[in-house]
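lol so apparently i was supposed to do this last week
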Amino acid sequence: MSTSNRALKIAQILLTQSLDEDDRVEEKKVSNILEELRLNPPLQHLEILKRYAFLVKRHLITYQSILEYRGGNGLEIAKRISNKDFIKDKNTEIKPAESSSLIAGFKLKVGDDVYEDSVANRLNNLRKVLLQQS
Amino acid sequence: MKTQSQIVSITFAKYFYSNLNFMNSITDLIRKEIENLSIDASRTNVGKVTMLADGVARVEGLSKVMYNEMVEFPNDVLGIALNLEEDSVGCVLLGDTSSLKEGDDAKTTGKLLSVPVGMGLLGRVVDAVSRPIDGKGPIQSDEEYFVERIAPGIIPRKSVDQPLQTGIMAVDSMIPIGRGQRELIIGDRSTGKTTIAIDTIINQAKINKQGEQSGKKDHRPVYCIYVAVGQKNSNVARTIKVLEDTGAMEYVTIVSAPAADNPANQYLAPYAGCAMGEWFMENGLDALIVYDDLSKHAVAYRQISLILKRPSGREAYPGDVFYLHSRLLERSARLNEDNGNGSLTALPIIETQMGDVSGYIPTNVISITDGQIFLETDLFNKGIRPAVSVGLSVSRVGSAAQIKAYKKVAGKVKLELAQFRELAAFSQFESDLDAATKARLDRGARIVEMFKQTAFNPIPVEVQTAIMWGMQNDFFDAIAVDKISEAVASLKDYLLTQGKEVCDEIYQSGKLEESTEQNLSSALEDWKRTFA
Ligand SMILES: Nc1ncnc2c1ncn2[C@@H]1O[C@H](COP(=O)(O)OP(=O)(O)OP(=O)(O)O)[C@@H](O)[C@H]1O
Ligand SMILES: [Mg+2]
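anyway here it is w/ adenosine-5'-triphosphate bound
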């Protein structure tokens, strides 16, 4: 087994130990784990921490989604989106955050899925259609 | 006291305003509903590039990607998901990947790779994903086929029963090919493999034109696709030039993934070409596809597999290298009448090292195909070109498709030639031979000479029949062996000009009746006088 594989395996175990009954990451458990690692640094400490951070982040986005928006009221948009079919039964929290990288519209990330209705996206679709026709 | 009219107007106002409120709340309701619906956000599944190497990207995320799905990278670079793993996806990249970097976004497209197909592709040169590279503008096509398709099953197929003439005497007589057959062309480098394939394509174009002009009622044109994998661009350019100069290009599509192209394109090009060929087959037409060559295709696939870290087996090829070629070659077929009666004939090419046919890729492809044309370096160097080895070449199904006239004259040739080879080796130590042996040796030496043929010079099947008939009926026996090539060339010219009538007779009927044989005999007598 390669060394990076070992680090990944350990990080996976750490992740399962940082979850509460609802499979959500618990802050206290995470800080306990970090404390423990600091006191007894394992082999490849840094590598393991990097993997751990990656896994925690990937786990977080499965139930916490970030709503990037520009223009309008973020909370209002979040409320409207949370009624939608694609998100209703996923039990996700939506955190609105105004983003300067958008011109207007919104972009919602849930896990690997991105739901987007923004000016940039519409322009891009238009560009593709025009390219296809030429 | 209020008047009647005042009362009426007040009630009306009350009624009106209450209704207005009522209407407001209704429109509010509808407006809300519209607002809810109008979030027509498009959903994409995304990931991040974590590794980029030699035309392969590893992407973290993309949890909903399908196997073989197209993945979109920035700057319109496309990839294909080939490795789906627990927490990452391996994609091969198509096109110019120099603009990509680690951390770039990758998106699913929900589409499998497909290429335009149809008549609009004839006369064109395209790349592995069917983008034109000949500067003749966009491809005219309104239909697309998936690049990876399932081969026709057992029910729609039927056995080979129509000939596909290569125009090369040695092949058409001893190793006949039928429409829908898969015949491997195998040999060391520079033994004339490509030349045989190109000759065949040129001959199809000739037959197509002849058929259109003569108005023969059962004439079925053959359209050709030439897939160049991992070749030098100069070679591809030369091939294109030959096809253009001989006027064959109007029936040909060239799919080119040269050596400088990334391995993903080289891996895909044969499948893309095959999809174009399948369109002809499924529309009741006949097509021929040449894969030049599958050794380089296997090497490109090995490269991709190694970078994707798939386990490697013999000669470092991945475990599924057999399936790589079997699923491609199985797509060539002869369909029965209920399924349109079309066909797709395949001529895959394999390069061997030092004439070794027992290599991994050669044995794989030999076992998939319906026979092989084996080309030998020794023969090639001796000047016997095309350098077809009689002993090692076979066609397992093609003889069922030979036209009757040709079968009659070619039936014994392979045996005669094989006997000649054996006797020639054996008679080196023998000083005085009996008459029968000597006759066999003489005949054999003349057949060898007769089969010599220059490159890009296919001979129509009716002319071949007449020449072979002449050989079988002792017309060449009086001519010295070193003059045979000359004699055959002269007879060919004669048959294409003065002797055209008897050739037309064979062309139209496809049979050698007694009367035809008489005409042939007098034509050959006539020629012999002019030649002597
Ligand atoms: N029948 C022939 N008569 C004369 N020359 C020939 C004949 N066939 C092939 N040649 C010549 O032999 C050379 C090699 O032929 P060709 O390119 O077809 O071989 P190849 O096996 O495809 O080579 P490569 O391994 O490079 O792909 C060419 O220069 C070609 O002109
Ligand atoms: Mg070649």
